[in-house]
Design a protein that fits this description.
426 residues, 0% strand
């Protein structure tokens, strides 16, 4: 987990800057799609066969770096290919298909199990999981190849200006100076949202790390990780995860209307309360089918987490520095996750005991408490309200900065709240 977080934090800004300065036979963004997809597919195919922890960790690092190389330019690619009137629909459709893909991926191990796949690899990985990884590798590569083959990119309108800009933006010194200045001058609304983000992502990390083993132990009653009950619990936990992705892309389409009827703060606080209720309710659930309801609450929260903080933040930022501030805002996602990756193990062992079978359940519930705190902290956020910042201006400003929102977390769907033309209905 730590390798993945650090890799995304480092690789994404570098790839974003490089793709802005690239032009060749495959265009600007497509070389990164293709290189990342090839490397990621190789890592996905081999990873389930890892014979040692270090082999698995190294492959995870390669996998996440490769996914970042492939995914980071996609957001810019949408903006490159669509005019301003189409970009909202383009970003929403991108999020829709990501939700569909995540849902299918989470369900794959259970599907393989239903098809009669049994047993484990010598390293203890269920064969259903191994085949899911390898199917994902094939689909990932095929999907990116389809994009590379069937799309074209527009060359720079002014090649000489493009070359001048590329020469002027060299050097790490200018990059780090911009980040430091952005942190020093951080707007008040961004500082307030940072508190909400820290508790939100601590809660999410509790869920991502421990919901599946909690399902195996609490709902399926498995105590032996090598038992068939534990394997079925792991498969069902992954299947249940699919429902938060499904809920997310269905609910996201309704959020702009709800925010217009109430406020963005109200919508976000209510969504976080739904997520908290979903995680805390796991304590009372023993039926595997009822467990699906927990992910409906989390899916509502996830839809808002991917949109409302960014909608609130975007109206509090100067358009000319939108890209770098969105990059700095990503720190408040990555930092709590790094803290969780380093501290969760020792804390769980010291608080709950070395062999406490209920420890995963308690950590999931702690995630629910973090969501409650995040919902309460929304009240301290000052939402400055919509400004006349057209989407084109935001994307143009973002394209001039070397930092962008970390796509390994997930692309931020358009909120529908900041991209109407000046003078339009707010």
């Amino acid at each position: 987990w730590l390798a993945a977080l650090m890799t995304g934090l480092i690789v994404q800004p570098i790839v974003g800057a490089l793709s802005d300065r690239t032009w060749g036979p495959l265009g600007r963004r497509r070389p990164y799609f293709l290189a990342g997809a090839i490397l990621a597919s190789i890592a996905l195919f081999i990873m389930p066969t890892s014979s040692t922890l270090w082999m698995a960790a190294a492959l995870l690092w390669i996998l996440d770096a490769s996914i970042n190389i492939s995914m980071e330019p996609f957001r810019a690619f949408v903006a490159d290919k669509l005019d301003a009137s189409q970009r909202t629909a383009g970003f929403v459709m991108q999020s829709f298909f990501i939700g569909v893909g995540a849902s299918l991926a989470n369900a794959l191990p259970l599907v393989f199990s239903w098809m009669g796949v049994e047993g484990s690899t010598p390293g203890g990985v269920p064969l259903s999981v191994k085949y899911a990884f390898q199917a994902g590798a094939v689909v990932f590569l095929a999907a990116v190849l389809w994009t590379v083959v069937t799309t074209r990119e527009h060359p720079p309108e002014d090649p000489e200006a493009f070359e001048r800009s590329r020469r002027e933006r060299k050097g790490l010194g200018a990059l780090f100076a911009e980040i430091g200045a952005a942190i020093r001058d951080m707007p008040v609304t961004m500082r307030q949202l940072a508190v909400v983000q820290v508790f939100t992502w601590l809660g999410l990390f509790c869920m991502w790390l421990f919901f599946v083993p909690a399902t195996a132990r609490h709902v399926f009653g498995a105590t032996d990780p090598q038992s068939p009950e534990y394997t079925r619990g792991i498969e069902w936990g992954g299947f249940v995860f699919a429902f938060y992705s499904i809920t997310c892309f269905l609910v996201a389409l309704a959020l702009p209307r709800l925010a217009a009827a109430t406020s963005r703060k109200t919508v976000h606080a209510g969504a976080l309360l739904c997520g908290a209720a979903g995680l805390l309710s796991m304590y009372f659930i023993r039926d595997q089918h009822v467990l699906i309801l927990t992910m409906i609450g989390v899916g509502i929260a996830w839809a808002s987490i991917l949109s409302m903080p960014y909608a609130i933040l975007s109206t509090a930022l100067p358009a000319a520095r939108m890209g770098v501030y969105m990059g700095v805002f990503n720190f408040f996602i990555v930092i709590p996750e790094i803290v969780a990756a380093l501290a969760f193990g020792p804390v769980i062992r010291s608080v709950f005991g070395e062999a406490n079978a209920n420890a995963p359940l308690y950590v999931v519930m702690a995630g629910g408490v973090c969501m409650l705190i995040a919902a309460a902290c929304v009240s301290i956020v000052r939402d400055v309200g919509p400004r006349d910042v057209p989407e084109g201006a935001v994307i143009a400003a973002d394209s001039r900065q070397p930092l962008s929102v970390q796509e390994s977390v997930q692309p931020v769907p358009s909120s529908g709240l900041v991209d109407e033309p000046p003078g339009g209905r707010r």
